């Protein structure tokens, strides 16, 4: 009886600590649901909500559970926005640990399969691009390699089955989604130039003589921050490049089809 009472007291204590911890973090599932409802594919919208989620990284399991439920009930365009959000959270939360990555790893395969199976060519290309990014950054370890191999195979199978009559729809879809993509290239270039200028000023301000002094820590932290900005801007430039490359590829495919048909009627 004493043992059961002791266990009960410990259990009640743990529940109370969890409740107090959640109160101290200020996280609210209801507020998160409201923020998700306002999410759109614009870069600023994704970054703003990503920063909020990372701030509440101690509640990452609840965040991912809510994200997952919203994803599977959403139309394609929102699915794409939600995947971009997940990508931004995982990429930028690593400094706080791997908890978000571990939580998203539990649900991301089903989410990718949903968009690939039920989405259009643009949605499938988003899947391919994200899988490539995650493998390149070794975000999921060996699981990332398996995802890349799986979708490389799926894309080859899909391409071999695709009839030529869908080329016009492919071109239109690629063009529309490129225009709506969450990439402001002019803004990214300004951010990139600003970060490079900041690093140059850091070198002038601190110099090598400061690295062993008390200012060395500030120098390293500021350098890390600017490195993170540069890495993220480069990643978004790659996304923009991928969207344009997809459009160019679809245009070339359509052109080749028309050239072949022209030769047939000559």
Automatic annotation (TrEMBL):
Gene Ontology BP term (one)? mRNA 3'-end processing
Read off the CDD domains from this record.
Answer: CID_RPRD_like (cd16981)
**Residue intervals of the CID domain:** 24-163
Top-rank taxon, per record: Eukaryota
- InterPro entries reported for this sequence: CID_dom, ENTH_VHS
SUPFAM superfamilies xref list: ENTH/VHS domain (SSF48464)
Cited SMART domains: RPR
Q: Which GO terms describe its molecular function?
A: RNA polymerase II complex binding
**GO cellular component entries:** nucleus
Coiled-coil blocks: none
Name the UniProt key words of this record, in alphabetical order. Answer: mRNA processing
Recorded protein name is CID domain-containing protein
Q: What is the lineage of its organism?
A: Eukaryota, Viridiplantae, Streptophyta, Embryophyta, Tracheophyta
């Amino acid at each position: 009886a004493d043992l059961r009472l002791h266990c009960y007291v410990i259990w009640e204590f743990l529940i109370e600590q969890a409740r107090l911890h959640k109160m101290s973090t200020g996280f609210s599932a209801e507020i998160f649901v409201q923020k998700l409802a306002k999410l759109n594919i614009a870069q600023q919208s994704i970054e703003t909500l990503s920063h909020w989620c990372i701030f509440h990284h101690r509640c990452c399991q609840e965040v991912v559970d809510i994200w997952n439920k919203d994803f599977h009930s959403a139309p394609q365009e929102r699915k794409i926005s939600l995947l971009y959000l997940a990508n931004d959270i995982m990429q930028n939360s690593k400094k706080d640990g791997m908890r978000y990555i571990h939580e998203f790893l539990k649900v991301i395969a089903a989410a990718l399969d949903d968009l690939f199976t039920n989405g259009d060519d643009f949605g499938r290309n988003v899947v391919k691009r994200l899988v490539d990014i995650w493998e390149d950054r070794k975000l999921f370890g060996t699981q990332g390699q398996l995802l890349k191999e799986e979708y490389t195979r799926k894309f080859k199978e899909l391409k071999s089955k695709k009839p030529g009559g869908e080329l016009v729809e492919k071109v239109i879809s690629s063009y529309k989604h490129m225009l709506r993509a969450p990439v402001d290239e002019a803004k990214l270039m300004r951010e990139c130039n600003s970060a490079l200028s900041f690093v140059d000023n850091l070198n002038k301000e601190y110099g090598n003589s400061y690295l062993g002094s008390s200012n060395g820590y500030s120098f390293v932290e500021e350098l890390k921050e600017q490195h993170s900005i540069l890495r993220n801007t480069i990643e978004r430039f790659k996304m923009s490049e991928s969207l344009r490359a997809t459009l160019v590829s679809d245009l070339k495919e359509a052109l080749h089809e028309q050239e072949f048909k022209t030769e047939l009627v000559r």
